[in-house]
Design goal:
5-stranded mixed β-sheet, 11 helices, single chain, elongated, alpha/beta
Length: about 350
């Protein structure tokens, strides 16, 4: 006897409204997306959300079951069924033979994390989804850049967590419990709840995950991507700021510059790494910030001098010999000055102290 499957519509695709209007004709039954029932996880939730953003699956129902006969009737199946066959739209990753990564399926991509159902759907449909949402060609530069950015900074995390891939070797120094996969997991019934029905939680997970994906895409499209041109122009003009060529000046604060800076250093083959960045804050004062040693570390390439750290205002100005100083963070990664010239002088004195220390050690 077959188990009854549950089916329901997914969240509305981006840009669709709920107001009254003529309904679209339905020439046939709605397509079906199959996934497993019971406890749900972030990867199949995201896979369903991504598929639902495609025109061909906009009105799809999600069929949650492990019954092979019911799954066979679905147009696409994710995270269940023991098959990876994109020709038949089967996207499971649990079979022992599965070892696919973004790199193995698209050799031009660098990521080697084993894919989950979310990563598989994104790998095969991601450019189509982004092109559809943004109204741009699939092979255009914006879609290409955003496809990579969203995989590296959204989807890969979900792939890794679902497949049990540790973020780093060794014992972590603290627990991460507020990530998206954890929040989805907490929408499942608790082990001792009298009602173990997962359907209401799955619906909430669809809204949560789908909303976060679209919010992240909106940010990267409207804020992160435009910042690249700003950072690239600053890199090209760096010698106008300081003769050393290692100080960058951005005309606006709040710009997400770090990742663009690392990428441009490689693309432009800069002879020396950039060390310090100047930018105005929202209050009209200026900041000098050290470039991090890497994209995922708090270590600085050139922190501000140790004697300045934790000192403020006039005491700092006298110590540094620079008028208008406001603060230097206790770790030395950032400092402030009331003027652009003052912030630049803080940067120059930091470089001079570094050179002096190098000469003494030599």
């Amino acid at each position: 006897m077959r188990r009854a499957a549950r089916a329901f519509p997914l969240m509305a695709a981006a840009g669709t409204g709920s107001g009254a209007g003529p309904k679209r004709p339905r020439p046939g039954p709605a397509p079906r997306i199959g996934t497993h029932d019971g406890t749900f996880h972030c990867d199949e939730v995201l896979a369903c959300c991504l598929l639902r953003l495609l025109p061909q699956y906009r009105d799809a129902e999600v069929v949650r079951t492990r019954d092979p006969e019911l799954l066979a009737e679905c147009d696409v199946v994710v995270d269940v069924g023991g098959e990876y066959d994109p020709e038949r739209h089967r996207y499971d990753h649990h079979q022992r033979s599965f070892a696919q990564s973004m790199h193995s399926l698209q050799p031009s991509k660098p990521w080697t994390t084993k894919l989950s159902s979310a990563g598989l759907v994104y790998c095969h449909f991601g450019t189509q989804i982004l092109a559809n949402l943004l109204g741009q060609p699939e092979d255009g530069p914006a879609v290409t850049a955003l496809y990579d950015k969203l995989y590296e900074n959204f989807v890969e995390e979900i792939d890794a967590i679902d497949n049990g891939v540790a973020q780093a070797d060794g014992e972590p120094r603290y627990a991460l419990t507020t990530h998206l996969s954890a929040r989805v997991g907490r929408l499942n019934p608790r082990w001792n709840d009298p009602d173990q029905d997962t359907e209401a939680g799955f619906r909430r997970a669809l809204e949560l995950v789908g909303g976060e994906f679209l919010d992240r895409l909106d940010y990267y499209h409207r804020a992160w991507l435009p910042a690249r041109a700003l950072v690239e122009e600053a890199v090209r003009r760096r010698f106008e700021v300081d003769a050393s060529g290692v100080v960058l000046e951005l005309p606006r604060g709040g710009c997400p510059w770090k990742e663009h800076l690392f990428g441009l250093e490689k693309e432009l083959a800069l002879p020396e790494p950039l060390l310090l960045v100047l930018f105005p804050d929202r209050g009209g004062q200026w900041r000098v910030q050290s470039v991090p040693a890497g994209p995922h570390t708090f270590e600085s390439r050139l922190p501000l001098p140790e004697p300045w750290r934790g000192i403020r205002d006039e005491a700092l100005s006298q110590l540094a010999g620079v008028p208008g100083c406001v603060f230097v963070h206790a770790s030395g990664f950032i400092g402030g000055n009331r003027t652009r010239d003052g912030a630049l002088e803080m940067a120059r004195r930091t470089l001079a102290l570094r050179r002096g220390a190098g000469e003494q050690s030599g």
